[in-house]
Structures are given as structure tokens and as C-alpha cells.
Design a protein that fits this description.
Blueprint: H1 4-36, E1 41-47, E2 50-56, E3 61-66, E4 72-77, E5 81-87, H2 93-96, E6 100-101, E7 113-116, E8 121-127
The protein binds zinc ion (ZN).
Residues 87, 89, 92-94, 116, 118-119 line the site of zinc ion.
Amino acid sequence: MVRKKDLLIVLGVLLVAAAFIGASFLFGERNASLMQTGAEQVVRIYVGSDLYATVPLGEPQEIRVEQENGCVNVVAVTEDGAYMKSSSCDNQLCVQQGMVTLENWQLRMLGRQIICLPNQVVVEIASQTQSVPQGDQPDV
Ligand SMILES: [Zn+2]
């Protein structure tokens, strides 16, 4: 037979356990998002195959990408992501692609990138350490 007193003790232990799990879950989440917004995250803007600009993620600003052929793209960098604010292209698909952030890029069709095909402009969020091509470093 299970006595009422034993049941209460079991309930108490379960509550304490649940509180611990809840706390570690919350703190874990917070740490994870702190890691993700670390200074090594950058926004890179490419025109064609050339790197046009690299700006740190989390420093809100706008970057105007002007090309000799008259194409103009305005890339907005926000606290946690980037988006194509405006573009001179016909289809405006890049503007419609919306914001890419560290939280949502895995769910986006284009992943880390915003692509303007007509203007050949690519915006991507990346880790500074992750994709610096070793081969491009001058061999001093
Ligand atoms: Zn476009």
C-alpha cells in the first residue's frame, strides 16, 4: 500500500527535479544565444564573385552597393541579422527574401544568403573564423 505521506514526498522530489530541469533549460538557452551573437559573426556582401564588404553582425547600419552598370542595392544590417532594404532590380525578389538571422537561417530556403540574381549581389551571414579561405592569404 502507498501511504499518502509517501506520495507527497514523491511529488516533492518530482517538483524539485522539474525546477532544476527548467532552470538549466532556461540558462542553457541564454548561453546559446549569447554564443550565437558573438563578435565573430559577420555579414558579407558579394558583387559577382568579389567580396564587396564585410561588416560585423549586430552593428546596425546600411551598406549601399553601387555598381558601374547602374545597379544599386541597399543592404541593412540589424542587431541580429541582415536584409535587402532596397534594390534597383526588376523582380525585387531579394527584397522579398526578407531578413536572415542567426536564428532563422536554417529554416530559410536560401539558408544564410540573400541573393539578388539580376544585380549579382549576394548577402550572407557567416562566422569570421569559419570561412576565411586559407588559399587566399598572401604567403609572406
Ligand atoms: Zn534583386
